[in-house]
Amino acid sequence: MPAKSSKTRQQRLPLSELPAGVSGRVAELSGQADFCQRLREMGFCESSVIQKIAGKSMLICQLCGTRVALSDRAARQIVVEPVRDGA
User: Fold this and answer.
1) 20 to 30 A from 43, CA-CA: which of 11, 37, 67, 70?
2) pLDDT, position 2
3) Each residue's pLDDT tens digit, 2-54
4) Looking at the domain assignment, is residue 6 inside a domain?
5) What is the largest CA-CA distance in the chain?
């Protein structure tokens, strides 16, 4: 019988769907290789923690102490796992 993974595996969702005020850890980047590389250069690396500040079509998020604006299209390609405070 397989182990239950619902408690050990975090729910993954696009950054665009993360509620405002919630932090998420980057699980993966999707899209073309050059786009993913540009995101990594901006600091959106796997395991980075991002806080979504506000926005729907244009998002404002905080990453490494810097606020960054992203289009909804770009944010949909950043898959995050919500994290609890202090995690």
Assistant:
1) 11
2) 47
3) 444 444 456 999 999 999 999 999 999 998 999 999 999 999 999 999 999 99
4) no
5) 46
Please provide the size of the chain in residues: 87
Specify if 57 maps to a domain: yes
Question: Are the CB atoms for 78 and 11 separated by under 8 Å?
Answer: no
Q: What is the four-CA torsion angle of 68, 47, 43, 35, rounded to 10 degrees?
A: -90
What is the model's pTM?
A: 0.82
d(CA 71, CA 17): 13
More confident site: 70 or 57:
70
CATH number at residue 18: 2.30.30.90
Q: How many domains does the chain have?
A: 1
**Residue at 30 is within a domain:** yes
Question: What is d(CA 2, CA 5) in angstroms, rounded to the nearest whole number?
Answer: 9
